[in-house]
Design a protein that fits this description.
Blueprint: E1 2-7, E2 21-24, E3 28-30, H1 41-46, E4 49-51, H2 57-60, H3 63-70, E5 78-82, H4 84-93, E6 114-118, E7 124-127, E8 130-136, E9 144-149, E10 154-157, H5 165-172, E11 177-183, H6 191-197, H7 202-208, E12 217-221, H8 228-238, E13 245-246, E14 252-254
Parallel strand pairs: 3-4, 4-5, 5-6, 10-11, 11-12, 12-13
Antiparallel strand pairs: 1-2, 1-14, 2-3, 7-8, 8-9, 9-10
Helix pairs in contact: 7-8
GO molecular function, one term: 3',5'-cyclic-AMP phosphodiesterase activity
Organism: Paraburkholderia ultramafica
InterPro entries: Metallo-B-lactamas, Pdiesterase2, RibonucZ/Hydroxyglut_hydro
Length: 255
């Protein structure tokens, strides 16, 4: 199994600065932020499943656009997975015939371009030997993270979250764990904003990880570009035992 980072920025910031999207092999996306723009129409046509962490645009903006771009090349609907509450938000506020056509009934209700499939936190599903599990997240809208397990190794992605000890208890007990991707959007100088927006800043993440142990690479995503260097300096001081590294678009993990 390969996981390719299409985008991981906390805001758009030019070439290579797309927002969150991870490509698993050639047929699964985790989130559909502007990083999806790195894919060709042919690559988009190969994607059968999209797992959404939450409804915010930096994680969903290219979902409606990719449906339209690939529609002529596909014979089966694209399946969008998320907790039911998030699917309801996407249907009500995105695929609503106002912001974008309702592709859950286009070209017909019997043969739609998009179908929704609920995956609740704590539940897993297997797709061609790969297991995806929805993990708890704490954000200003309903949210989830995801673990992807090939059977030989696993990668965890927090999605957008703030203080979340339940998530870390699950992660620290996970077998075959190779990589943990966690967001940290703000520096500690903006801790009040991080708390209000329910994102991590370095001190909040360090508090959550104080008594946590795992043997896996810790990677930081969703940094606000203007603060990225400061955030990483603070994380490397606060979490030196984990040796955290900034996640970069284009990186490929083999599991």
């Amino acid at each position: 199994m390969k996981v390719r980072i299409l985008g991981c920025s906390g805001a758009i910031c030019g070439v290579g600065g797309g927002t969150t999207s991870l490509l698993v092999d050639d047929d699964i996306l985790i989130d559909a932020g502007t990083g999806v723009g790195e894919l060709s129409d042919a690559e988009l046509a190969h994607i059968d499943h999209v797992f959404i962490t939450h409804s915010h645009l930096d994680h969903t903006a290219f979902l409606p656009l990719m449906v339209d771009a690939a529609a002529e090349y596909r014979t089966q609907p694209l399946t969008v997975h998320a907790p039911q509450v998030t699917l309801d938000i996407l249907h009500a506020h995105l695929f609503n015939n106002l912001i974008w056509p309702d592709f859950t009934v286009i070209p017909s209700a019997a043969a739609p371009a998009v179908q929704f499939a609920a995956l609740e936190v704590g539940h897993s599903m297997s797709l061609r030997g790969r297991t995806l599990t929805a993990l708890p997240a704490q954000h200003v809208v309903p949210a989830a993270g995801y673990a992807v397990d090939s059977g030989a190794g696993s990668l965890v992605f927090s999605g957008d979250t703030t203080t979340n000890p339940v998530f870390w208890a699950i992660v620290s007990a996970m077998p075959r764990l190779r990589h943990v991707i966690v967001e940290t959007a703000f520096p500690d100088a903006h801790r009040a904003t991080a708390v209000a927006a329910q994102h991590y800043c370095p001190s909040l993440l360090a508090a959550d990880l104080h008594d946590v142990r795992f043997d896996a690479e810790l990677l930081i995503s969703h940094l606000k570009p203007v603060h990225a260097a400061q955030i990483m300096r603070e994380l490397n001081t606060a979490l030196h035992r984990f040796d955290p590294h900034r996640l970069d678009a284009g990186r490929v993990f083999e599991l």
